[in-house]
Specification:
Number of helices: 8
Oligomer: single chain
Radius of gyration: 18 Å
Shape: globular
CATH architecture: 3-Layer(aba) Sandwich
Number of domains: 1
CATH topology: Rossmann fold
Structural class: alpha/beta
């Protein structure tokens, strides 16, 4: 049985106004992502990577074309429906961590579950499990200011994973990490991808991230210029 399609973009276009002109961020992008992917959008700054993630996460809308996320077409979706889909199915990891400074690590990870209205006892169990996944149980009572960059990114991963989303969108997740911490958090994401079948889609130009990808999608000037998924899967099949 084929894995189910979670994200499908067809003829996706996005432009932004800049003065009297329109800047093209995405142009005629056709991409689909299936359950359990570990894929990356790769390219220089301005190539459209983050724009695609924002549209896939229903944080932005395309100028042209369409995208379907977990069976929900973006066109015609209300803000409420988009928020409900994000809350249930999508986790986000940002390069700046975006942790709430007045909350403890535990409370930061718990926050998405509060939005879901999960009962307290279930929230507690889910948060402890997420902290265990990323190896920071001992930091549960700490505040973000007391954490290293690597620890902060682990908290961000736990927060993204605590609701067991189908998809995690990670925008330059290693940009503020040194090589050792980059490899540690990437190994954590690989483990979660393999054990929970969560799809990870990255925006990156970091070679350390690219080494871990099972699928590499190269963007230039808003267009897909290479998609090495077929080669990667062929290689995996040869190994089996």
């Amino acid at each position: 049985m084929q894995d189910s399609v979670q994200i499908e973009a067809r003829h996706l276009c996005k432009t932004f106004p800049m003065g009297q002109q329109q800047v093209v961020a995405l142009e005629q992008v056709n991409l689909s992502f299936r359950e359990g992917e570990f894929a990356g959008l790769v390219g220089p700054s301005g190539s459209g990577k983050t724009t695609f993630l924002n549209i896939a996460g229903l944080l932005d809308v395309p100028t042209g074309g369409n995208i379907t996320v977990m069976g929900q077409p973006s066109d015609g979706a209300s803000h409420k429906a988009a928020a409900a889909l994000r809350n249930r199915h999508i986790g986000f990891i940002f390069q700046t961590f975006n942790l709430l400074p007045v909350y403890t690590v535990f409370e930061n990870v718990e926050f998405p579950l509060l939005l879901q209205g999960m009962p307290k006892s279930q929230r507690k169990d889910a948060v402890w499990q997420a902290l265990e996944w990323v190896g920071i149980l001992d930091k549960a009572k700490a505040r973000p200011s007391q954490l290293s960059g690597g620890q902060s990114q682990r908290v961000a991963i736990a927060r993204a994973m605590v609701k067991r989303p189908a998809i995690v969108l990670a925008d330059e997740p290693t940009a503020n990490l040194d090589a050792k911490n980059s490899h540690n958090v990437l190994q954590t994401m690989v483990k979660l991808n393999e054990e929970l079948k969560t799809s990870f889609i990255f925006s990156t130009h970091d070679e350390k991230v690219i080494q871990y990808l099972k699928r590499k999608i190269s963007l230039e000037d808003g267009r897909v210029v290479e998609d090495s998924e077929a080669e990667a899967r062929k290689h995996e099949a040869e190994l089996q």
